[in-house]
Structures are given as structure tokens and as C-alpha cells.
Specification:
Length: 109
């Protein structure tokens, strides 16, 4: 059995979100599939694509481990929270823009 790791590093845009979904679908079809870890590092991007990634990860028939291996900001935070189990460094998730001024940073255990 194999543990698969995918790295998502860059903006959340339609092309990158589609590429991630296609790669995850491919991995799920592998005979030696055991587990999946998504390594996130993104400054954000398209709100629609970020929410779609969240919904996609939550709907998968397996539990996904998400790890923030760098900055995760803006719409990247909900996309990262789509993973069922999450780990991150203390400084990985940061609010941006108006949310910083309002003091509305939300951390999920």
C-alpha cells in the first residue's frame, strides 16, 4: 500500500484547482492507494475555486490529511480546512486585508 503526497504551491485559480482535482481522482483509482496527504502553500486566489476545493475535499470517500507547509492565506484557508485532518506550523495561516483590521482570525483545531 502506498501513501500519496501532493503539493499545492501557488495561487488558487481555475487551472490549478482543476489540476489538483484531476490528480486526486487519478490517485484514488490506483490499486496500491492507502492514504493521501495534501501539502498546502498558497496566498489565496479565486473565491469560487477555493470554496469548490473545500467542497471537493470534504466529499471525498477517504480522509485527507492537509499540511500547511508555508503561508496559507485568504481563500487558501477554507480550501486547507477542507482536509479532514490538518497540521500546520504556528505561522502558516494568516488573515489578509479587512479581516486583519477586524481581528477576525479563526483557527480550527
Amino acid at each position: 500500500m502506498a501513501e500519496y503526497r501532493l503539493v499545492f504551491n501557488g495561487p488558487i485559480i481555475t487551472q490549478s484547482a482543476n489540476a489538483l482535482r484531476h490528480r486526486v481522482a487519478f490517485i484514488l483509482e490506483q490499486a496500491d492507494f492507502e492514504s493521501l496527504t495534501l501539502v498546502f502553500s498558497t496566498s489565496g486566489g479565486s473565491t469560487q475555486d477555493g470554496i469548490n476545493l473545500y467542497s471537493f475535499l470534504r466529499a471525498l470517500p477517504i480522509r485527507v490529511h492537509g499540511h500547511a507547509a508555508g503561508h496559507v492565506g485568504s481563500i487558501g484557508i477554507p480550501a486547507f480546512l477542507g482536509a479532514h485532518y490538518r497540521t500546520m506550523s504556528r505561522f502558516s495561516c494568516r488573515p489578509t486585508g479587512a479581516s486583519l483590521l477586524a481581528g477576525s482570525l479563526i483557527f480550527a483545531p
